[in-house]
Design brief:
Blueprint: E1 2-4, H1 10-27, H2 31-40, H3 43-59, E2 64-69, E3 72-79, E4 91-98, H4 107-120, E5 129-131, H5 138-146
Parallel strand pairs: 4-5
Antiparallel strand pairs: 1-2, 2-3, 3-4
């Protein structure tokens, strides 16, 4: 079952967020990239992240959906609130993560359907949802392709 995030889910969400971030660092790059992702997950980042989550949920209550099994939060999806859609002129799927023990069980599909529902309810400049996925993350790419996502440009970055 998926439902809207509640403030009581904060600790579970933080644990899953760490899994999301560490997976990005370990599965899609060098040890240096993995180290950067590990290093940022300190108490200050945790507090800032959960505060941002609260602001997003206050603005659009369904922006974060969680998957729950046996009373435990085991996955989440985060669609940026409608006011942030102008970042890409579309709905933005910011994050989706399922605890590794529940992958392949339909939880990701449940969360993606929730995300699409939230996005469809937004008033957007363009009728589309975008996301950022590392080309090295074949598992995620295959999942998104099942939902009709195709490449629409490419993101680049540089250190500040």
């Amino acid at each position: 079952m998926s439902r809207a995030y509640r403030s009581a889910d904060a600790e579970a969400l933080w644990e899953l967020k760490q899994g999301f971030e560490l997976g990005l660092g370990e599965e899609t790059g060098s040890e240096a990239k993995a180290e950067q992702y590990r290093d940022k997950l300190d108490e200050a980042y945790r507090a800032d992240y959960l505060e941002w989550v609260d602001r997003c949920v206050a603005e659009q209550p369904r922006s974060i959906q969680v998957a729950v099994r046996d009373g435990n939060v085991i996955g989440y999806v985060f669609v940026l609130p409608e006011t942030l859609a102008y970042i890409w002129d579309a709905a933005v799927l910011n994050e989706i993560f399922v605890h590794p023990d529940y992958r392949g069980t339909g939880v990701g599909d449940e969360l993606m359907e929730a995300a699409i529902s939230v996005a469809r309810d937004q008033k957007l400049p363009l009728d589309r949802m975008v996301l950022d996925v590392d080309r090295a993350n074949r598992r995620a790419q295959a999942f998104y392709e099942r939902y009709g996502f195709t490449y629409w440009g490419e993101m680049q970055s540089r250190e500040l």
